[in-house]
Amino acid sequence: KLETANFLKLIGLPAPWTISADQVDSIPSFPCIIKPRNGQGSKNIFVCRDQIEANFFRSYVPNSIFQELLLPAREEITCALYRFANGELAVLQLRRKLVGGTTGWAEVIENEEIHNQCQIIAENLDFYGPANVQLINTQQGPRIFEINPRFSSTVLMRHHLAFTDVLWALQEDQKLKLSPYLPPIGKIMVKTQDVMALK
Predict the structure, then answer these.
(1) How many Cα atoms sit within 13 Å of 177 on the Cβ side?
(2) What is the arithmetic mean of pLDDT over 128-149?
(3) Which residues pair with 144 in a beta bridge?
């Protein structure tokens, strides 16, 4: 996650300030969050309101980082990316609510600035296939805090929204015609007891 923040700055995208937990005495501002340096499915993430809490959680969460607290939390967006072999990029933007660390509610949105940031990331990483970008759409604009180079846990939810990235990967591998994609702006998905409901 620290490398992700440094990479975003390197390619000219605004990113939340992020420092190693070893720099606990140099935290730029409070409140902030502390979280593991590597992904753990939204686990062991805590808000530190002052230096005392920062010192405590640093010992509680090993191999961690401090990061700017991005707000508002209700504006958390997860973006599914799929970069095709021809370089074209499909992006599905989901404003979401977490339930038990995973997406329980999501609404399809379309934000040009978010799309442009995803495009810049795809071009600089020069990858092909799936990825997932997480961000908060703050009052100052989108601030990305995580990039995952994989199919994400919302794969079935996305499939119901015509973002069929697993199918695209198989179709490209077999040189088959690709399934079309048109983001269904405004659609809402709700997950209840592993059952998907589409509005």
Answers:
(1) 2
(2) 96
(3) 135
